Amino acid sequence: MGNRYDYQSIEQWVKSIYKAYGFSEESSSIIAESIVTTDLFGIESHGVQRLAMYDRKIAAGDIKVGAIPKVIWETPVSAVVDGHKGMGQLVAGKAMSLAIEKAEQSGIGIVSVRNSNHYGMAGYYAKMASDKGMLGISATNSNPFLIPTHAVQPFLGSNPLAFSMPAEPHDFLFDAATTVVSLGKIEVYAKQGKTIPGAWAVDEHNEVNRDATKLRENLSKHPKIGGMLPVGGRGEENGGYKGFGHSLIVEILTSILSQGHLSADLGSGKVKGISHFFTAIDLRLFGDPGDISEALSAMLKRIRNLPTEPGKKMYIHGDKEAAAFEDRLKNGIPIDPETLKEMAEVSERLHIPYQSYL
Questions:
Q1: Residue ranges making up the domain that contains 95
Q2: 171 in any annotated domain
């Protein structure tokens, strides 16, 4: 897992990196806060582990420093935003803020985005709405990783979908890829030298492969070698077509509604620009928000109290993230040695004295 580091120091380090790229003070703070909060929630696949990828994209011009997202279509309850290839965290944050603003005025806000970049943890943006007492939804497409049921090459992205809603003792937060896992999880396993425990992806022979390093290398190629399996796995026997269908729904909500690029066309070296989808819903559309949240909390409590398998504990989506958040606030965030080395190399190139943050 790696040593632990004070999250505030790491956040300042990440902020200094983005300031060195040329992002403004405010933008650098927003990016750093989003990335480190993801690590605090225990989603290491989408936190500082992603800095090397963002570095490559900035160097290649795929992420445009200083890009300003623009609303290109708007109604009282909806909008389409062109991210102009900006940093995904900045584009997504503005888009969800716009959805929340519309929900405050009209009860619901729906914003679709095109020409953005990898935005980190999908649940971060859904939780922006639940932090305001609303129901929040966030989704994004990605480079093509998912092999549709009965196909032999990827077409859809890992296409995560997140949903958050106010509850006690903490907000309900569901955040999951529509592939068995995200690519970032494979990257983390490769960095930690672990063998993949399940049937997550197939190799060039269309066979399930559990070598994380090999899969990471294969899936970084253009075009991809092999691909990732949908939730439910291969074929129809265990419902793999359902994961495929959920991924397809995310693709419709993101690239189709925004008229952006399909996952299938991304990562080719020619087509750039990820699409997102955000919704904020004011619970007052359905009655008293306090009563609704109380009903949700009561249901979740009943589920948590269900009898469990021997040696197992019942979890609700968001429980593990809340526990990780509390632990890591006090004890620091873990960073594996390979990721720390990547961060140090970026810092040295940007002339940042990073040792003071460790």
A1: 66-180+229-305
A2: yes
How many domains does one find in the chain? 2
Q: What are the residues whose beta carbons fall under 8 Å from the beta carbon of 53, sequence distance 6 or more?
A: 118
What's the burial of 229, exposed, middle or buried (CB within 10 Å: 0-12/13-18/19+)? buried
| Mean pLDDT value of segment 77-88 | 98
Copy the structure tokens of residue 344: 């140090």
The C-alpha atoms of residue 23 and residue 12 are separated, in whole angstroms, by: 14
- CATH number at 330 reads 1.10.1530.10
DSSP state of 156: B
The per-residue pLDDT for range 225-281, each reduced to its tens digit, is 999 999 999 999 999 999 999 999 999 999 999 999 999 999 776 789 999 999 999
- Rounded Cα gap, residues 338 and 312, in angstroms: 32
Half-sphere exposure of 162 (CA within 13 A, CB side): 28
Model pTM score: 0.95
Report the distance separating Cα 286 and Cα 317, nearest Å.
Answer: 23
Residues 6 and 53 in one domain: yes
